[in-house]
UniProtKB/TrEMBL annotation:
GO function term, MF aspect, one: phosphorelay sensor kinase activity
Keyword annotations: Kinase, Membrane, Phosphoprotein, Transferase, Transmembrane, Transmembrane helix, Two-component regulatory system
Compartments, as annotated in UniProt: Cell membrane
UniProt protein name: histidine kinase
Catalytically driven reaction(s): ATP + protein L-histidine = ADP + protein N-phospho-L-histidine
Domain HAMP residue range list: 113-166
Annotated Histidine kinase domain residues: 174-390
Organism phylogeny: Bacteria, Bacillati, Actinomycetota, Actinomycetes, Micromonosporales
Listed transmembrane segments: 12-37, 92-111
GO CC terms, sorted: plasma membrane
Species assigned in the record: Virgisporangium ochraceum
Pfam families: HAMP, HATPase_c, HisKA
Domain of life of the source: Bacteria
């Protein structure tokens, strides 16, 4: 015989268990009481009786028999009373146990429902959560019991899943942003050099070298983005990197792009600037700074790319003569998805606000810091500070090295 569906629920099983346990405890208590009373009173029915004549003396002094009755001894009367008392106790105990069993079923059903109410809330919230919206939380209040711990554990799991999905979305945005830059470099060099008849072999060779670096950069993009997505991950290949060479290569990549906007690139590079890190990742960071500088700098101005050493800290800086950044926005400029209004300068371009966030990620993954110095209307200088071997002093983050140089 197939049992009804509700008998499969935890609530029903808890109710049955509660009722059976309560019934067993109450029954055991009554049995012990019954046995104790029985052994202490020796109850039994009347088995022997005596015939007694009731006689009365008359007026004449003679006794006459009025009636004859059966009587028992006092001990047997007491035993009979105890016997009837035990019978009454047994009968009422059976009725009490039956009523207690029914009451325990009702009480167990109510109590188990209250105890399992948080489970229902957890189940409803889990059903409502979708992969596209993991912001919902159970937020179970009350005492710190096992169900509260379960709900908090699920909330923590949802938080980790939400962060993982957000990281995936950011990875897609980072990839689209990063792929746009090497494609723009390739297109600009093709249009400015290789597609123009009469271009000299030296210029063609330089354009081919730039395009080759851009294609290599695109081929390594996915692996590098996975590394930059985790700040503490060992995602870069540590090697000796000449920062002056990194800065010059990034400048050469953007020379054609800046030239199309009427912007020139000049260099202020020191020597012996060797750091430990990933050459391609650092060039990507400088290239992102140059991309913004070439985009925002007015025509017929100069973008300066510099590199040097101050107090044991190596630096690469990119300075432009653009609109500058308000003091209130300088703390947010390296945040993901932050975009400053440019008064229509970039209207029609879809920018994600990830370029500078990637710059900070790369620099911090190398143990350095990124800083910005800006004056509204006079331009901005972005500085990447990287530690030299054995450096112990604080990062001179307040120093604008191009001004000091």
């Amino acid at each position: 015989m197939r049992l009804p569906r509700f008998t499969h629920s935890i609530r029903f099983r808890l109710t049955a268990l509660y009722s059976l346990l309560l019934f067993a405890l109450a029954g055991s208590a009554l049995v012990v009481t019954y046995v104790a009373v029985e052994r202490s009173t020796d109850p039994k029915p009347i088995t022997e009786s005596y015939e007694v004549e009731l006689r009365k003396r008359g007026y004449d002094g003679r006794e006459r028999t009025i009636d004859t009755v059966d009587m028992a001894a006092v001990e047997e009367v007491e035993s009979a009373v105890n016997f009837r008392t035990l019978q009454t106790l047994r009968n009422y105990s059976g009725l009490a146990l039956g009523g207690l069993f029914l009451a325990s079923l009702g009480i167990g059903w109510v109590l188990s429902g209250r105890a399992l109410r948080p489970v229902g809330r957890i189940a409803r919230t889990a059903r409502e959560i979708q992969a596209t919206d993991l912001s919902r939380r159970i937020d179970l209040g009350g005492y710190r019991d096992e169900l509260r711990d379960l709900a908090d554990t699920i909330d923590s799991m949802l938080g980790r899943l939400d962060s993982a999905f957000a990281a995936q979305r950011q990875l897609i945005d980072d990839a689209s942003h990063e792929l746009r830059t090497p494609l723009a470099i390739i297109r600009a060099n093709l249009d400015a050099t290789l597609a123009v008849p009469g271009t000299g072999s030296e210029e063609r060779d330089r354009a081919v070298a730039v395009i080759d670096r851009a294609t290599v950069r695109m081929s390594r993009l996915v692996e590098d983005l996975l590394a930059t997505a985790r700040r503490e991950a060992e995602g870069f290949d540590d090697a000796a990197v000449d920062l002056a060479e990194v800065a010059r290569e990034a400048g050469e990549e953007f020379a054609a792009v800046a030239g199309e906007r009427g912007v020139a690139i000049e260099y202020a590079l020191g020597s012996g600037l060797v750091a430990s890190g990933d050459h391609d990742a650092l060039r990507r960071a400088v290239a992102n700074l140059l991309s913004n500088a070439a985009r925002l700098a007015p025509a017929d101005t100069v973008v300066t790319v510099g590199a040097g050493n101050i107090d044991g800290w190596l630096w690469i800086a990119v300075a432009d003569r653009g609109p500058g950044i308000d003091s209130g926005d300088r703390e947010k400029v390296f945040d993901r998805f932050w975009r400053r209004e440019t008064g229509g300068r970039d209207r029609g371009e879809r920018r994600t606000g990830l370029g500078l966030a990637i710059v900070r990620q790369i620099v911090e993954s190398h143990g350095g810091r990124a800083a910005v110095h800006s004056t509204v209307g006079a331009g901005s200088t972005f500085v990447l500070w990287l530690p030299a071997d054995g450096v112990e002093g604080p990062v001179p983050i307040e120093v604008n090295p191009l001004v000091k140089a």
